[in-house]
Amino acid sequence: MTTNGAHQAHQHTARQHTITALVMDHPGVLNRVASMFRRRGFNIASLAVGASEIPGQSRMTFVVNGDDATVEQVTKQLRKIIEVVKVTDLSQEDIVARELALVKVKTPSADSRAEVIQIVELFRAKVIDVGADTVTIEITGDENKIASIMTLLKGFGVVEVMRTGRVAMSRGRKAPVRAAAGSAKAKASKA
Amino acid sequence: MKRTGAQIVCESLQAEGVDIIFGILGGAILPLYQTLPQYPKLKHILVRHEQCAAHAADGYSRVTGKVGVCWATSGPGATNLVTGLANAMMDSVPMVAITGQVPRSAIGKDAFQETDVTGVTLPVTKHNYLVMDAKDLAHTIKEAFYIARSGRPGPVLIDIPKDVLQEEADYVYPESVTLPGYVPHLTGNPAQIKRAAKLIAEAHRPVIIAGHGVIISRAYAELKELAEKAQIPVITTLLGISGFPEDHVLSLGMPGMHGMAYANIAIDRSDLVIGIGMRFDDRVVGRVKDFAPRAKIIHIDIDPAEIDKNVKTTVPLVGDVKRVLSALNKQLAPQNRLDWVREVDQVKREHPSHLISDTNKVLPQYVVRQIWEATKGDAIIVTGVGQHQMWAAQHFFYTKPASFVTSGGLGTMGFEVPAAIGAKLGKPKETVWAICGDGGFQMTLQELATIAEHKIDIKFAIFNNGFHGMVRQWQELFYNKDYVATQFFNPDFVKLADAYGIAGFRVTDKAGVRATIDQAMAVRGPVLIDFVVEPEENVYPMIPAGTSVGEMIEAPLPGLHLVDSKDAST
User: Fold this and answer.
1) How many CB atoms lie within 10 A of CB B215?
2) What is the CATH code for A96-169?
3) How near does any CA of chain B get to the CA of A85, in Å?
4) Could you tell me the CATH superfamily of domain B190-350?
5) Best mutation target, A67, A78, A82, A189, to test chain B (most B CBs within 10 A)
6) Does B2-170 match B356-539 in CATH topology?
7) How many CB atoms lie within 10 A of CB B570?
8) Taking CB atoms and an 8 Å limit, are B297 and A183 in contact across chains?
9) The domain B2-170: what is its CATH number?
10) Which of B89, B128, B159, B308 to mutate to test the interface with A (most CBs of A within 10 A)?
């Protein structure tokens, strides 16, 4: 029941939402999406873009911090972009989510290198490059796993970090978010 | 068949039923201009500033319901369109804007008159395109018109490099468009329609707040049926004005910051607000938590993103207003709400905001009322933004659909001059009055040349108070009368009209108001009247920004004798 001045958007506490969007592979589409976030004052915690299983369409994964009402606005405003085909808020779903990070760590001595390699094995990460006094590590996992290994590596001295941002999809056999091209063929008639 | 890019543009515009284009030429768009003589059905109106090409297309669209078309050259021509695009975007006006661009090989090189036009216009268009191949022109134009006019309408821009206009391609105008990411919701959800009907049946004190969507959707009959069948008072937002006849017993005028006191009080007392094709804008709602505190809310809008954006809705109904109302009306049994209608009528008598002070001064409100009487309400009124706009909204009684053309969301001063051009050319048989502020008029008055050149029959009423009046009012009320930069020098508007070969009159006393309006109406062709009005008159009622009906400042002040010239004349 909406009574006594309850028309204000619900003020839930902010939490993290994962949203995916299927977009047309057109020049400038990332600009359109980013511009919408910026001008409406929505913050993107992370953004990952890549090819999808549909030719000519890419999939974006956003992590957005905000209350439910804000995130609902984000998804609605995303849907309004002509080149955005489909938007799914995965926040309520059981999802698998991964991020990839590359971390370059100082290893001036053989001892420190051995210690770092031990940590890498513990986290099932990978050493992908070894320099004279650095090693570069590849870690895949959720944000917690990456945060944990980062805490441990900090003591050695982190030279550079590169993270992809989260990519996510729902678990199980559920069909991917898809709107096959041509299914929404609109009959354009004269006004 | 082979056509040049410029020919494809013209053929496509013809296929879309375009009959008029507002624009200014320049280097990058020249191939299009040089092709225009091959297409005599496309009438071109050369304006004097590209901003006015967009506003003229906007005014044309609002009165005809068709997609307005404007074009401009690259660089400064295109950037000058931006205000007009933003205006159309805010007010959901269908428009297609075409801009010339530097040749493909020069893009990105900071070439002469190069601007990233798709980048610049991205946030102020519904969609935009840069067409890099002549073979893409026809389907792009087809898409642009479809996107502009469907769903929640808006402006679409097409940027075309000069050499794309010159190269040849095969031309076939497509039958349909394929836009997987764009499927407007047109029909309301039947379950929600049932819920809405139930809420309406249960309500004791419902009000309708009707907005621009009613006019865009041409849902006049459906709105009237709903109001009459369920006996619900109808309030129309600034852009909803003329969507419901203001001589109707259920009409309550405009709500919000400068709305009728009785409209705002009715909303405050209501137990159900039915928002139809409107977006609960801050000028309507004021302080959100005090808006309609006892009411549930049904929100009907074609744009899902408007639902729950500003106020929390009890029943959302996404769809085209005409279709949704038509389905809703079928679910409703006739209802009797005489007590509520009588109560609202009583409020109207106690708070007669539509009355005008009886004084010998030249009150701007009186000028509006006299234009209403002289035209018998049978006119299209076009306004800019500010005090004159509010008075035109309050004191003219609109009974003809789509007869009030104003800049709402963006609040673009100077809109009235070019928009009146578009309105008159769109509806040549209608009487068009442009009610202008002296400040805004000077932002677009160069279009008097366009008007004189084409002898466009527009009557201009300039409210000359020597102030940016609305801002002065805020300074008076909220900045202790500290009139910083609001008072300004005006030219002699009558001599100005004369310089353009336009008939000009000046009115300085009350007796001259009606006589001069009648005189202007007798002239065939454009006329400008300089009404030297009471300089420090305020717009009332007023609910200051961010407050609510409890803080409404009502006027006129006690002791002033009021005259209802609406009653006196009928």
Assistant:
1) 27
2) 3.30.70.1150
3) 4
4) TPP-binding domain (3.40.50.1220)
5) A82
6) yes
7) 8
8) no
9) 3.40.50.970
10) B308
Instruction: Give the residue numbers of B marked as catalytic.
Output: 50, 112-113, 162, 470
Of the candidates A5, A77, A184, the beta carbon closest to that of B179 is on A184
- DSSP class per residue in B243-282: SS-TTSTTB----STTS-HHHHHHHHH-SEEEEES----H
Question: Tokens representing B348?
Answer: 């109207």
CA-based nearest distance B183→chain A, Å: 7
d(Cα B253, Cα B397) in Å, to the nearest integer? 9
User: How far is the C-alpha of B284 from the C-alpha of B211, rounded, in Å?
Assistant: 11
CATH of A15-93, one of 3.30.70.260, 3.30.750.24, 3.40.50.970, 3.40.1210.10: 3.30.70.260
Q: How many CB pairs lie under 8 A apart between chains A and B? A: 111
Q: Token digits for B383?
A: 């306004």
What is the tens place of the pLDDT at every residue in B171-227? 999 999 999 999 999 999 999 999 999 999 999 999 999 999 999 999 999 999 999
pLDDT of residue B503: 98
Within its chain, how far is the Cα of B172 from the centroid? 35
- Residue B555's pLDDT band (boundaries 50, 70, 90)? confident
User: How far does Cα B533 stand from its chain's mean position?
Assistant: 25
Q: Would you write out chain A's pLDDT as a tens digit for each of its 191 residues?
A: 334 444 554 455 778 899 999 999 999 999 999 999 999 989 899 999 999 999 999 999 999 998 888 899 999 999 999 999 999 999 888 999 999 999 999 999 999 999 999 999 999 999 999 999 999 999 999 989 999 999 999 999 999 999 999 999 999 866 555 444 333 333 333 33
Partner B contacted by A80 (CB < 8 A): yes
Distance from CA of B182 to the nearest CA of A (A): 5
Q: Which of A1, A28, A73 sits opposite B305 (nearest CB)?
A: A73
Residues B360, B361, B362, B365, CA torsion sign? negative
Tokens for B339, please give them.
Answer: 């007590």
Helix (H) or strand (E) holding B333: none
CATH code for the domain defined by B356-539: 3.40.50.970
**Pure H helices in A9-155:** 29-39, 68-80, 110-122, 143-154
- B17 and A84 within 8 Å at the Cβ level: the answer is no
Q: Is the pLDDT of residue B300 over 50?
A: yes
**Domain-wise residue ranges, chain B:** 2-170, 190-350, 356-539
Residue B1: per-residue pLDDT:
81
Higher pLDDT, B5 or B566: B5
**Closest residue on chain B to A38 (Cα):** B123
Subunit contact A188:B126, Cβ cutoff 8 A: no
For chain A, the domains span 15-93, 96-169
* Minimal Cβ distance to B123: which of A27, A35, A72: A35
% chain B with pLDDT above 90: 95
**What is the DSSP pairing of strand A134-141 with strand A126-130?**
antiparallel
Interchain contact A55–B (C-beta under 8 A): no
